[in-house]
Predict the structure.
Amino acid sequence: MLTLRSLHHYLAGLVEGRLWLKVLIGMVAGLTVGMLIGPSVGWVEAETSLWIGNWFALPGQLFLVTVQMIVVPLVLASVILGLTSTEDVEQLRRLGLMVVGYFVATTAFAAAIGLWIADLLRPGAGLSGRVATPAASQAPPAAQMPSMAELPDQLIGLLPGNPLGAMVQGEMLQIVIFSVIIGVACLSLSREQSQPILGLMAALQQVCMTVVRWAMWLAPVAVFGLMARLTSQLGVGALLGMGYYVVTVLLGLAMLLAVYLLMLFLVLGTRPGRFLADTRELLLLAFSTSSSAAVMPLSMKTAEEQLAVPAAVARFVIPLGATINMNGTALYQGVAAMFLAQVYGVELGMSAMVLVVATAVGSAIGSPGTPGVGIVILAMVLTSVGIPAEGVALIMGVDRILDMSRTAVNVAGDVTAASLMSRWVGAR
């Protein structure tokens, strides 16, 4: 079984092996080669540049397809194992509804912040009309935007009436809802009765993580190829456009962290400086590993020893939060969806924004706390509102720093939730 310790050792090995540095080198090399063969320098003709860029992008497409292939079983296993990580069923009954409600509400709030700040700053406006929409054979079908009157039926349609069909179609929100139902059902059984399915889920998670490891080996080459093709199409202007996008995401994450600090101050009287000092090692490790799952043991230790959260609360809320509390990821997906909508000229009305928030909540909840997966799940959010999933290539090259940053915010959200829950349930 893939334990948190083995996962942590693997992630530490990636850091020691400087995979992040290889990815950054691949990004810079891709940008350079793309500029040389693209319109900025024009070493080759436009037609030649097109087919060279497509061949360069082949490893990137292989990377995306490889991770997409296993994202559904990985989400299914992770959500079920996260919900069943506690053996204290009474504690779950007492905290469960409040914790899950809090996670869903704050995740929706984070996605809304992402949409709002991207709509305010419009980071994709500078690239609008400069990126070719993928051919019809390659682009996902555009979703028909429901009216406000039709929205209730659309939301009911998100329930997993046919779980196997949802898995085949890649309906992530339905998969997450189905996984939650199975996880809660397992908790209602005795350990002996639920152990077979939990053992199967643990084995499935291990297999999926092995495939993720293989895919991560391709990451530097994938980033090189995707960025080379991107820059060969856009030229130097892409650099400025993507820089504005990065700043927009980081500003949104800073706002979300400020909301956490404000909640802690209002509810518990914890000063922002004190909280950041108590959690600095945890947040730095989360930033370095890009994995909330890898730092989960340290998250529990920090909550118990530094933030005075009772062990019973910390050991329930934090493992659950590492699986379904992905507020930083939801905010990032909201910004990315609005950014790419601006790039491709897709108008997002109110009903479309509600659908983005709902899909972002589901995909963030189902997003495993491991690096290399969130960027792929974003494609499902894009597809839900008719934005070409090909746009993932636009943001993949700068995703490393954003992945590190949103993971740190995700972990800050986990320990914040544990602190708040301990007060709200009367445990402190």
Remarks:
- The chain has a mean pLDDT of 75.
- The radius of gyration is 21 Å.
